[in-house]
Amino acid sequence: MRIAQVAPLFESVPPGLYGGSERVVSWLTEELVQLGHEVTLFASGDSQTSAHLVPVCEKALWRDKDCRETLPHHVRMMELVFRDLSRFDMIHFHSDYIHFPLVRRYGCPSVTTLHGFVHAHDLRELLEEYHDVPLVAISNSQQEPVPNANWLGTVYHGLPETLHPFQSQPGEYFAFLGRTSPDKGLERAVEIARLSGVRLKIAAKIYDEDRNYFEQVIQPLLQKSASFVEFVGEIGGEAKNEFLGRAKALLFPVNWPEPFGLVMIEALACGTPVIAWRRGSVPEVIQDGVTGFIVDSVEEAVRCVPRLANIRREGCRAMFEARFRAKRMATDYVRMYEKVLGRRKEGQRDLEAPELDLVSVMA
């Protein structure tokens, strides 16, 4: 199958450090190539891939100091994609909604993965208007705000089996990995560490829109908690493997309906259990009491800390291998592609069916 993968341009594919959607696009692209498909990747020019790369911009927009507006680059990407649709049997968009009018008017076979939270107030009318654009969710909970949208189904994220090596022996600290955003609940992580007497290491990216929050809320908290909290900043590669793999547990105290939470399966791949809030996708990813604990408060999280000794790290790794490998993700998406193509063939047969000769039928 000739497949186009259309990535966001904010980070390279894969990102050097923090970046969720672009990382998933990279893993999916590489697995599709391994499965024998002919894949074209539309992404920033500093991306690395075994597929055919169409460099839409010179480098990732969030890494480009001269970039002031990201929308023009994404509009141009749509031109590059739609210029010659005969090149592709399937186009897979990861670029939010900018392509919806073009998909409708060109009638090209496509699927769109929505990687963010589906906020009903903003998206309900849009998704219901474009009821003919096939959508894929990254968790069942992501579909709940607009259940009547054109959801083909859910495909959970997956990552390469060898990306994060299994670590059988944990260290004596909690890990927090993500953004310094109010949605991620970093204050809760600090409080859990304080009350449980366990050190906390924070590997986090500070986006410009979150800088005031970090400086006014988190930075004073870190200064106050310097004796048991270490802020290490953005990490990737081997440093990330060591950070996650040596942790006693990953703290995931999210304060919003998390659409997926990629860091949870990265931790499981390392064998590291997760203590997470009961929000969004968490109950779909974490098996309570088996791969970690699902909680509703800081106090409940602290009570779970002694029970971490009962979680088998081998069991966490086994759950990752069973449910969250990149190969499984790629084969699930191929099924979605085939579903769309099958529907199109059915529709074409309906259009091509000869009209009944009512006279002969009635005779």
Key features of this structure:
six-stranded parallel β-sheet, Glycosyl transferase group 1, Rossmann fold, alpha/beta, 14 helices, transferase, 40% helix, glycosyltransferase activity, seven-stranded parallel β-sheet, 363 residues
Summarize the structure in short:
The protein is 40% helix and 16% strand. With 363 residues, the chain is of the alpha/beta class.
Descriptive report:
The protein has helices at 21-34, 71-82, 100-106, 120-129, 140-143, 186-196, 211-224, 237-245, 262-270, 282-285, 298-304, 313-323, 326-352, 358-362; strands at residues 2-6, 38-43, 52-55, 90-93, 110-113, 135-137, 151-154, 173-179, 199-205, 229-231, 249-252, 274-277, 292-295. The strands form two sheets. It has a seven-stranded parallel beta sheet with strand order 3-2-1-4-5-6-7, with helices on both faces. The chain has a six-stranded parallel beta sheet with strand order 10-9-8-11-12-13, with helices on both faces. Helix 1 (21-34) packs across helix 13, helix 6 packs across helix 11 (298-304) and helix 9 packs across helix 12. Strand 4 (90-93), helix 3 and strand 5 (110-113) form a beta-alpha-beta unit. The chain starts with a strand and ends with a helix. It has 14 helices and 13 strands. It is α/β, with parallel strands linked by helices. Helices cover 40% and strands 16% of the residues. The protein folds into two domains: 2-160 and 325-351, 3-Layer(aba) Sandwich (Rossmann fold); 173-322, Glycogen Phosphorylase B (Rossmann fold).
Termini separation (Å)? 47 Å
- In terms of DSSP E residues, the strand content is 15-25%
Oligomer: single chain
How many DSSP H or I helices? 14
E-strand count:
13
Spatial order of the strands in the main sheet?
3-2-1-4-5-6-7
Shape: globular
Text of the CATH class of the largest domain: Alpha Beta
